[in-house]
Amino acid sequence: MQTLTERSPGLTRTGSAHQAGTVALTALAPASWGTTYAVTTELLPPGHPLFAGLMRALPAGLAGLALTRALPRGDWWWKTAVLGVLNIGALFPLLFLAAERLPGGVAATLAAAQPLLVAGLAMAVLRDRPSAWRWTWGVLGVLGVGLVVLGPQARLDAVGVLAGLGGAAAMAGGIVLTKRWGRPAGAGPLTLAGWQLTAGGLLLLPLTLAVEGVPQGIDAGAAGGYLWLGSMGGLIAYTLWFRGIGRLQVGASAPLVLLSPLVAAVVGIALGESLSPLQTAGFALALTAMLAAQFNSPDLRARVARGRRTGHLVREERFR
What we know:
Layout: E1 2-5, H1 12-33, H2 36-42, H3 49-68, H4 76-89, H5 91-101, H6 104-112, H7 114-125, H8 132-149, H9 158-181, H10 189-211, H11 220-247, H12 250-253, H13 259-270, H14 277-292, H15 298-310, E2 314-317
Antiparallel strand pairs: 1-2
């Protein structure tokens, strides 16, 4: 989709500062999600991805409902159900399953492909045509993450790979539909987070009880892990994420998920791991790709500049 815009030169600096602040706050969400792999493997009882997803979603969603005291209205009941399935109900157990079946590096690399999936879905749903600039940095971002987290001992498990790709596809669909539908009047990001976490949690509740049940012997470490994932990784992170999606272009918000595997690598360093020179180069490449996606392509910037000089309106692509 394209819009005609004319930017005032006097507002450019203020707008850039506001944009940077929005990006920074939004980035806190995928940064917190980067701790999921370490929390899952170090603290949570194994073999219970559905229960882990349930504990991350439902208590946080109910807390959000209690804070906002608002329920969906009209067609937002079914929209919330769809988004709750994509962003929460399907995503959470698939992420935990991938984390259990695959080394963290393989799972993180699969998740890093999400910006490319977002670009493809946006072409079909939003009628937006991503630029070569965005495709290039999306591919380089995946490559950078792969250099950081994939090693010679990386093993592939078919179920884990499918779970990782399925989780990335689910979240990509959630990002695109969230951008398409926006949010109803009077409903803020915290409200949307509460709705979707509750919807996803209610979906997981019967599945968890029927398939897994409650793990035995939940110790203090596991309880702390569930609390962290439900609070910072759940209600707080999704509130910031939905706020950012509403204010940023899709092409700017989607690549921020590259922070998740990068933070996971940093957590690994804190736990005693180290980065080789090749991994360090991959880290820098992934970080550069994420930052480059926050800017328009050089071709577009040149056309905007020409339009300002000539006094004409410039056609600016919304999905860059």
